[in-house]
Amino acid sequence: MLRILLGEPPRVNSGVLAEAMEHMAEFASLLRKEMNRYEDRDHEFRKLEIWTRGLIVSLDELEQSWFAAAFYRKSVKAGYMDDMSVAEQGEYARYVYFYKNGFIRVFSLLDKLGTVLNSLYDLNTSRVKTHFSYFTVLREFHTHKEHTVLADQLENIKNSYREPLQNLRKRRNAEIHYMNAEMQDDLWQRHQGLHDKIQLEDLDSHLEDLKQGLEMVCKSLEAVYKYSTEHWPKNIGKS
Q1: What is residue 192's predicted lDDT score, i.e. its pLDDT?
Q2: Which of 20, 33, 74, 89 could cross-link to 218 by cystine, CB 3.0-4.6 Å?
Q3: Inter-axis angle of helices 162-173 and 148-160, nearest 10
Q4: Contact residues for 36 (Cβ-Cβ < 8 A; gap 6+)
Q5: 182 phi and psi, to 5 degrees?
Q6: Within its chain, how far is the Cα of 210 from the centroid?
Q7: Residue 235 Cα to chain centre, angstroms
Q8: Which CA distances in Å does 27 have to 24, 35, 54, 201?
Q9: Residue ranges of the Cyclic nucleotide-binding domain (predicted)?
């Protein structure tokens, strides 16, 4: 959708994004077949199918946010806020909007995946923490020791992206709980010199963190849905 608005051709899925999308679609199709085979009176299959299709939409929105942020970043040439023209300030504002939208979506999507894992593998994570995150679910997954192959794979993926995830988490927390994430550097610079020009944050480094976050999400989704499809129906008590 955003590519059309930006005058760009539609996305052609490839790489880890395509793999994640394909495995999620395959699992949703499997759930639909199970609903046709059984009456699904407790709507467990239907619930998992809706959640899975929701994750497909969420992944699409995350990728679009990263793409749009990268698109508008190309128009930001000045290194200081004071040196920007009015038009460039507008492009920078649009970059910031989609960049922030992206890093918030990274953790939102992971938490949704955690909800799917919790339900699919009967982890009952709410006993540990009422409002749990993906990372809480991951820790709980390890304690069950029934699907160690998947649990280890997800843990390895998380550890491989530790640094960019930490960077994104800090900005997400600042954005939600304290101040606009892009203003943190402005505040620090004001402490150094009240009348100095405000230098922009490292846009390329921030975009790379978001790209790495997107890759981490794709690989995690691919791992969960590939494993769950291959091990169906052993992974859900109802089956």
Answers
A1: 40
A2: 20
A3: 70
A4: none
A5: -70, -10
A6: 9
A7: 24
A8: 5, 12, 13, 41
A9: 55-114
